[in-house]
From TrEMBL:
Keywords: Membrane, Transmembrane, Transmembrane helix. The chain crosses the membrane at residues 37-56, 68-86, 107-127, 133-154, 184-203. This is Uncharacterized protein. It comes from Streptosporangium saharense.
Amino acid sequence: MNRLDDDDDRPLSPEEMLRLIEEQQATTVRRLGGDPLLTHTPWGITWLAGFGALYLNYAYDLLSRSTALAVLFALMVLSMATTFFAQRTVSSQVRGEAADRGMMYGLSWMFGFACVVAICVRLSPLLPSEETGLLWSVTSMAIVSALYAAGGALWRVRTMFFLGAWLAALNVAGAIAGPTVHALLISVGAGGVFTAVGVVQWMRRRGGA
C-alpha cells in the first residue's frame, strides 16, 4: 500500500507533464471548435440551397431574383444564429480569456454582416440587376470566409482555417467569372464541402467519444 501511495505522490516526469499538457490542449481545442454539426453543416446547407436557388435564377430563370436572394439571406440569418449559439455554448464551458474571445468572435459576425447590408444597400441602385446579386453574394462570402479563417487562427483549429481559405478562393474565382459561375461554385464547392466536413467530423467525434 505504501509503495502504491508513493507512486501516486511522486512528481511527474517532464515527458509525462508534456503529454498531460498536450492532452489538455487537445481537449480545449475540441471544445473551442464547437460541435461541427452546428459550426460547419448549417453553412453548408445554406450555400447548397441558397446559392443553388441563385444558380437556377441565373442559368435557367426558374426562380425570380428576389425569391432566390430571400431564400439565401433567410438561411444565412439562421446559420449566423446557429453559429452564435454554438460559440455561446462553447464559451459557457470555459472561463476567463477564452470565454471573452468566444463572445467577441460571435459578435463579430453581426458587426460584419451589418457592414455588408450597409454597403450593398448603398451601392445596389447604381448597378445592373445581375451585378447587384453578385455584389450581395461576394461581400457576404468575403465576411464569412474571413471570419472562418480568423476563428481557426484564434483557436488553432486547422480545419476551420482551411475551410475559410477554401471559401475565399472560391469567392474570388466566382467574382471574376461572374454571377452564374459564382453561384455554382459556392453552392457545390463550398456548400458540399462544408456539409461533408461537418458530418464527417461529427461522426469521428462520436466514434472517439
